[in-house]
Design a protein that fits this description.
The chain has 470 residues and is α+β, with helices and mostly antiparallel strands. The protein is built from 7 helices and 16 strands. The strands form 3 sheets. It has an 8-stranded antiparallel beta barrel. Strands 1-2-3-4 form a 4-stranded antiparallel sheet. Strands 5-6-7-8 form a 4-stranded antiparallel sheet. A hairpin with an 8-residue loop joins β5 and β6. It is rod-shaped and about 195 Å long.
Length: 470
């Protein structure tokens, strides 16, 4: 059946044109009308195509619409499926865009977590800083959309996000990073945390070394650690009981890894007695482990138990207290005071027992008198004569002291002079004494005729005290 609208040849049973959808029920069937054939359009010869004609824009759109309608009619089911799919995609895109638009901002979450995080629970330990920790920053590390807790329990559905964050706490010596997590749900009041923040782990990083005040407070423990590695004789703990300690240096080595930062602290320890002292430098090695500073080892410098006698340096003046001799006594020293200046203790070789200085006093460079005398023309006054001495810690019966310096001046034509300084004698632990011995050689005559050489020794005793100016 030929469509009168578009000329398309349809089947005889068609009711609508398959090309343009025109109604074919009003078209006479073949054989009706007397001729049995359908009349051809005007001027169209049988068996020939219709001549071309101009088509208006309105007719063109109408034709395309009819063709589209015919296509949709033939493919109704497929078109319906495609429409449903497109509608679902559009709806998903709209929901996704709305979810993005309404998601909590990182800034808002960080501010809320900072307020909720509170203070960090931190134990500084024996050597760490007790300075208060405060929140320095919060950073969101994960934000994932999820089903709200209400929807999971059968309640009303609401937008929700699982959030994880790092909370940074800081004081002058340590940084703590606390990892927390929680679920934020959208409500009429905005985004609110459902429940409490959960702890997901904590890490520690040293930002500076040990607390030096705590190092000083625990000097005894550090000294005991040094004692365990001490190779010399004696006990450091005993020698430095009641000593004074000071921090004279430290070497803090930070590390990106939390448990490898170190701090080497140098302590100077000194214990002073009346006339001597012991001193040493102790290097204490600390490591930052599990968030606290821990003492790992310590060692004292060489010579930690060797006394230093710097307290002896200075001028000591003596009051004459007695004279003796191997012959007649001479008391000329009564009118000539003794002055001993100790200039240095120790020498360039590292010895701590060598002493240098000068002495002023009286030397008896004369033969003995028949009887004791107040003075003699052979008495010679000494002025700043240099001497050298050696410190001994052996007991000396003459001085009755355990700390003594045996000193000698160069020989002179009149004889020789030697003296011993004793510090802390048993009867005066804070005092000092000097025993000055003059040896003089002179000529005697046997039976008043035969000459021979002999000598006499004069011993003067002095009580010493440090010069007032010092």
């Amino acid at each position: 059946m030929i469509c009168p609208a578009c000329g398309h040849d349809n089947s005889d049973k068609a009711t609508r044109c398959s090309a343009c959808g025109a109604d074919l029920t009003q078209v006479p069937a073949q054989g009706e009308g007397g001729s049995g054939t359908q009349p051809l359009p005007h001027r169209q010869a049988p068996g020939q195509a219709p001549p071309p004609r101009d088509v208006t824009w309105k007719e063109f759109l109408s034709q395309q619409g009819r063709k589209a309608g015919a296509f949709l009619h033939r493919h109704q089911r497929a078109v319906a499926v495609l429409a449903v799919v497109a509608l679902g995609a559009l709806l998903a895109a709209v929901l996704f865009a709305r979810a993005l638009a309404s998601a909590p901002t990182n800034a808002a979450l960080e501010a809320d977590i900072a307020q909720r995080a509170g203070s960090a629970t931190y134990t500084a330990g024996q050597y760490g800083s007790d300075e208060e920790l405060s929140v320095s920053s919060v950073s969101i590390t994960r934000k994932t959309q999820t089903q709200s807790p209400a929807a999971q329990t059968g309640g009303l559905s609401a937008a929700a996000y699982d959030v994880q964050a790092e909370v940074h706490y800081l004081n002058g010596s340590v940084e703590i990073v606390r990892n927390v997590g929680g679920t934020y749900v959208q409500s009429s009041e905005g985004w609110v945390l459902s429940g409490e923040l959960s702890d997901l782990g904590t890490s520690y990083t040293a930002r500076s070394g040990v607390d030096q005040d705590k190092v000083l407070a625990n000097a005894a423990a550090i000294l005991a650690e040094a004692d365990s590695s001490w190779k010399g004789g004696g006990s450091l703990a005993s020698a430095y009981q009641d000593a004074t300690f000071s921090v004279v240096g430290n070497d803090f080595q930070a590390s990106p890894e939390n448990d490898t930062s170190t701090d080497d602290v140098t302590l100077h320890a000194e214990r002073a007695d009346t006339f001597w002292s012991v001193r040493t430098d102790i290097v204490a090695h600390f490591a930052f482990l599990d968030g606290t500073w821990q003492l790992r080892s310590a060692e004292a410098s060489e010579g930690a138990l060797t006394p230093v006698y710097d307290q002896l340096v200075g001028t000591w003046v003596g009051t004459h207290t007695g004279s003796q001799s191997t012959a007649g006594a001479c008391y000329g020293a009564n009118s000539t005071p003794l002055s001993v200046t100790i200039a240095s203790v120790g020498d360039s070789s590292g010895s701590r027992s060598q002493v240098t200085g000068t002495i002023s006093g009286l030397a008896h460079f004369h033969a003995p008198a028949k009887t004791s005398e107040d003075s003699d023309e052979g008495d010679q006054e000494l002025r700043d004569v240099a001497f050298t001495g050696t410190i001994s810690t052996a007991h000396d019966d003459q001085t009755n002291a355990d700390l003594n310096i045996a000193c000698k001046v160069p020989d002179s034509a009149g004889g020789s002079l030697a003296f011993t300084l004793g510090f802390g004698p048993k009867d005066d632990p804070t005092g000092a004494v000097a025993i000055v011995s003059t040896t003089h050689e002179y000529t005697e005559r046997l039976l008043f005729v035969v000459p021979y050489q002999t000598q006499v020794t004069y011993t003067d005793t002095y009580s010493l005290s440090r010069a007032a100016a010092e």
